[in-house]
Amino acid sequence: xxxxxxxxxxxxxxxxxxxxxxxxxxxxxxxxxxxxxxxxxxxxxxxxxxxxxxxxxxxxxxxxxxxxxxxxxxxxxxxxxxxxxxxxxxxxxxxxxxxxxxxxxxxxxxxxxxxxxxxxxxxxxxxxxxxxxxxxxxxxxxxxxxxxxxxxxxxxxxxxxxxxxxxxxxxxxxxxxxxxxxxxxxxxxxxxxxxxxxxxxxxxxxxxxxxxxxxxxxxxxxxxxxxxxxxxxxxxxxxxxxxxxxxxxxxxxxxxxxxxxxxxxxxxxxxxxxxxxxxxxxxxxxxxxxxxxxxxxxxxxxxxxxxxxxxxxxxxxxxxxxxxxxxxxxxxxxxxxxxxxxxxxxxxxxxxxxxxxxxxxxxxxxxxxxxxxxxxxxxxxxxxxxxxxxxxxxxxxxxxxxxxxxxxxxxxxxxxxxxxxxxxxxxxxxxxxxxxxxxxxxxxxxxxxxxxxxxxxxxxxxxxxxxxxxxxxxxxxxxxxxxxx
Length: 485
Ligand SMILES: [Zn+2]
Fold this sequence. Notes:
Layout: H1 2-20, H2 26-40, H3 45-56, H4 64-79, E1 84-106, E2 110-112, E3 114-116, E4 128-135, H5 138-142, E5 153-156, H6 169-185, E6 190-194, E7 220-223, H7 225-236, E8 242-264, E9 269-279, H8 289-307, E10 315-322, H9 330-341, E11 348-351, E12 361-367, H10 373-383, E13 389-390, H11 402-405, E14 411-416, H12 421-424, H13 437-456
Parallel strand pairs: 4-5, 5-6, 6-7, 9-10, 9-11, 12-13
Antiparallel strand pairs: 1-2, 1-8, 3-7, 4-8, 8-10, 12-14
Helix pairs in contact: 2-13, 3-4, 3-8, 8-13, 10-13
The structure holds zinc ion.
Zinc ion binds at residues 279, 291-292, 325, 355.
């Protein structure tokens, strides 16, 4: 009797095994396709960003607006019908911008548009006046003789190049991150950079910078692209260019903000989680519509749509609005540390973040074990009608997902068209009008499909090799450790 039974079992198992490769049945695929189509018909994502950017506005980490953003988002998540909404503490130093201006004193007196870089000190309560010395790149500044900039302002004039995938950011951003340290090493009293951005608008792009121990701290600012051009023309005229720089900014104590988290509880494996999210903080000048109100809205709405399905997915879906990404990935790091301490890294089945503006998604990428890749390809087939291609062996996790991926968690990326992202990134011009509601709906559709099928499949996405910490920070990297984005 044994043999025929075994044969029968094998015969029955064979067709099941084929669909079992990806652990998704026809019902799951149909539900994902329905989520996709429903999102395209119009989602609540634009209304979410509209509310956040209007009612809270700019949300610099550690300010009273940070607290309002946390409260606003918690209430919104609760109103969206999630099974669970909760806060987790995130502590960091508070940096405040007070005042900033720059003007050329000679040979052609006029004002320039400047912004202090995040983390910069001020000019000491009074304007600083000095001659400007230009460097085409950060490397050129590094190659300057020691002491050659004593009493001078170093100006790094390199220009970020525009690409759809934002890869011009990585090579350019080192000037912002490390310009102050390198200039101070040569004796400079301040550093100015050309904004790390692609627009020709007269807005300067802020963004994080860093100091290191044992190198004097000097003020750091960015000029708008047209103002950087203007300064370059003056310098090329051949006479010494003297500039007055006035920055008031300070780091004042610590603040505890929160990651705001919402969940759809899994029906079979509630302890296994798929995370999606964005960061809730923004820089202080714009209203943080594309960076990153959009990301929080897209992923929250995708999660809420899944939560309204008749049957919850097998695994839990967790939407995370991360605290203080901009000044050093504090929310992502706190989340990863807490999960590591609780032994929950392995419970993370797939993690993704939307933090690249509001442009349409064009590619699905993932870092999973080879055995789980067929699931990614199947998810990609459901995404294909959205104009999304599946790409293997490229991409990387979002910035706040980086810390948990470094501890072994698997990731997925929905790559967005960032052609104009760096026109607005970190400027006063990052406002709601830059968002196309239809594009936002396409992203909701993509995140809903990804999160739902990743939470529904019976396949384990596994864990990845744990990254070993780099011995020294790479000069061309964002201080926050962001990939080129
Ligand atoms: Zn961002």
